[in-house]
Amino acid sequence: MHTELSFAPLAGIETELLAVPAFDLQTAKGPDAKAQPTLLAADEAVHSAAATVLASGEFKAGANETVLLHSPAGLAARRLLIVGLGKQSKATVHSVRGAAGTAVRFAKPRGIRELVFALPASPELPEAPSARAAVEGALAGDFDPDTYRSDRKDQSIQSFTVSAVADVAKPFVESAFAEGIVIGESQNFTRSLVNEPGNKLTPTILGERAAAMAAEVGLKAEVYSTEKLHELRMGAFWSVSQGSAEPPALIVLRYEPDGVTDGPMLGLVGKGITFDTGGISIKPSDNMEKMKYDMAGGAAMIGAMRAIALLKPRVRVLCIVCAAENMPDGKAQKPGDVQTAMPIAPDRPGKTIEIINTDAEGRLVLADGLAYARQLGATHLIDAATLTGAIGIALGIHNAGAFSNDDATFTRFETGLAVSGEKFWRMPLGEEYAEMIRSDIGDIKNTGGRYGGAITAAEFLHAFAEDTPWIHLDIAGMAWIDDAKPYIARGPSGVGVRSIVEWVKSYAQ
Ligand code: BES
Ligand code: MN
Ligand code: ZN
Q1: Active-site residue identified among 97, 209, 351, 363
Q2: Nearest ligand to the C-alpha of residue 278?
Q3: pLDDT of res. 26
Q4: pLDDT of residue 25
Q5: Looking at residue 110, what DSSP letter applies?
Q6: CA–CA dist 135, 160 (Å, integer)
Q7: Residue 100 C-alpha to ligand 1 middle, in angstroms?
Q8: pLDDT at position 151
Q9: How far is Cα 106 from Cα 108, in angstroms, rounded to an integer?
Q10: 18 alpha carbon – ligand 2 mean position (Å)
Q11: Beta-sheet pairing, 18-23 with 249-255
Q12: Amino acid 32: pLDDT
């Protein structure tokens, strides 16, 4: 998708489709105000063209509601699409992200390949963050998951233009727009990885994709396999991988900006299970096909690294993705087995883990990923994983879970959510939960029972992050969208990418 930023007056823009946002009708105030949507166009000609339909009461401008006019009078555009932002009191730049995605997804099936999206002319929705959100939303809306359909009609948008009002803020609008392109494309890169089935994206292939991306954007990449796992004594990671004919991939990406030799080194750690059968504690077959997205946390980290490489914040970032397949096999680990995780420091023994359930494999690969990140010098950690079904039971599909052992570190993440527009809800940690995963035979066991399943999983990771400031993101309920929305297709969401990038930016010197 080609993207452009235009400062030309709306009425004169020649385009197949001009999309203009509107607040819903409940915003009318004063005795003379007619209850009709408020069109957010700076241009009088657009108001005239839309006057009749807005007065009709047919269109209420609810969030992502649309109405289309052909050959709008007085405009050079061939079609005018009005897109609702919902109530003025509730609308944010994130509503703009949705509206831009909605406009794109409106255009796609109708054979429209090019459109212009007007930023809302409203003081509550400043142009710079709106421009960023709009292009992010458009890129997200352009993504469809039908890669392997032989009758696939390529409906992608060829050109998307954001129309802004030229004023003193112009340079800010331009840089926010440029940033939105990087972030939107990186999120889509993550989604394209998550969308791949297990046979097309093995751990090895995930490693190749990450390395190819790294070469393109100028990141250092190392991809290791079985031998390196043994060398590093990654007994927890290997215990998952040992049951698969596919070798594991230990993916290490580094972003080291010139001249930054001290200060924080951020460690991004991702779960990269390219397929999760559950292993010997095998999952039921219903919905098992979904477990191809069990590498979404790793893919989010890889996508975030792409954005970081292009946005160039002045802070060092290390990314570790532990990729493996979780399979049942003659060589697979068994419930009751005891594994020794990677030592957190060279002079310490690795923690011993009693395997209760081989389906609790994500925490095993992440334990070694976190330990390795610490050994490589990470001062702050963030991990992302489709870790537990329990997080979906706790929070549903509208918030992902976030856990942290450090309030200051978490505050940075939370602050970034206002920019990313992603919803994460902080969950508790605590000694009582850590108690639930104490093992009789070893140091720790890999499940703590049904109650508080997302929290005991987080406490398992905490045992490897220890006191290093750390955030854990459980995205199991949010990484896959089951029902299409007007602004985004059903399928991989790319959740996490935008928030992780904001968190990294908060450390830039
Ligand atoms: N990959 C799953 C978690 C998951 C569930 C992701 C649903 C996406 C959607 C994870 O490896 C898993 O199997 N977790 C178990 C843990 C249990 C055995 C303690 C679970 O959630 O049931
Ligand atoms: Mn599992
Ligand atoms: Zn899993």
Answers
A1: 363
A2: 2
A3: 64
A4: 73
A5: G
A6: 8
A7: 34
A8: 87
A9: 6
A10: 46
A11: unpaired
A12: 61
Known catalytic membership, residue 78? no
pLDDT on residue 169 = 86
Please name the fold of domain 187-505.
Answer: Aminopeptidase (3.40.630)
How far apart are alpha carbons 164 and 174 in whole angstroms?
10
Contact residues for 498 (Cβ-Cβ < 8 A; gap 6+): 136, 183, 187, 419, 420, 421, 422
Ligand closest to the CA atom of residue 446: 1
Instruction: Please name the amino acid found at residue 48.
Output: S
364 is written with which tokens? Answer: 């095993």
Q: Which atom of ligand 1 is found nearest the CA of 446?
A: 19
In three-state secondary structure terms, 194 is helix
Token representation of residue 226: 């079985």
pTM (2 decimals)? 0.97
pLDDT of residue 27: 54
Q: Rg of the chain's alpha carbons, rounded to an integer?
A: 24
List all residues whose CB is within 6 A of at least one atom of ligand 1. Answer: 276, 294, 357, 359-362, 386, 388-390, 447, 453, 476
Q: Determine which helix (DSSP H) or strand (DSSP E) holds 340, and give its type and residue range.
A: strand 338-340
Q: What is the pLDDT of residue 153?
A: 82
In contact, 211 and 221? CB cutoff 8 Å: yes
The tokens describing 64, both together, are 């992502």
- What stretch of H or E contains 394? helix 390-395
- Which residue lies with its CA nearest to atom 13 of ligand 1? 359
Active site residue 450: no
Residue-wise burial string across 305-316, b where 16 or more C-beta atoms lie within 10 A, e elsewhere: bbbbbbbebebb
Report the run of H or E that residue 159 belongs to, with start and end.
Answer: strand 159-163
> What's the CATH fold of domain 2-166?
Leucine Aminopeptidase, subunit E; domain 1 (3.40.220)
Whole-angstrom distance, CA of residue 410 vs CA of residue 404: 6
Pocket test for ligand 1, best of 240, 327, 358, 388 (most atoms within 8 A of CB): 388
Domain-wise residue ranges, the chain: 2-166, 187-505
Q: What's the CA-to-centroid distance between 478 and ligand 3, angstroms? A: 14
CA distance 187 to 204: 21
Q: What is the pLDDT of residue 30?
A: 64
Q: What is the C-alpha to C-alpha distance for residues 241 and 260, in angstroms, rounded to an integer?
A: 36
Q: One of 78, 87, 170, 283 is an active-site residue; which one?
A: 283
Q: Give me ligand 1 centre to Cα 388, in Å.
A: 4
> Residues near 300 by Cβ (< 8 Å), separated by ≥ 6?
190, 270, 384, 475, 479, 494, 495, 496, 497, 500
Residues of the chain with pLDDT under 70: 26-34
Atom of ligand 1 nearest to the CA of 457: 19
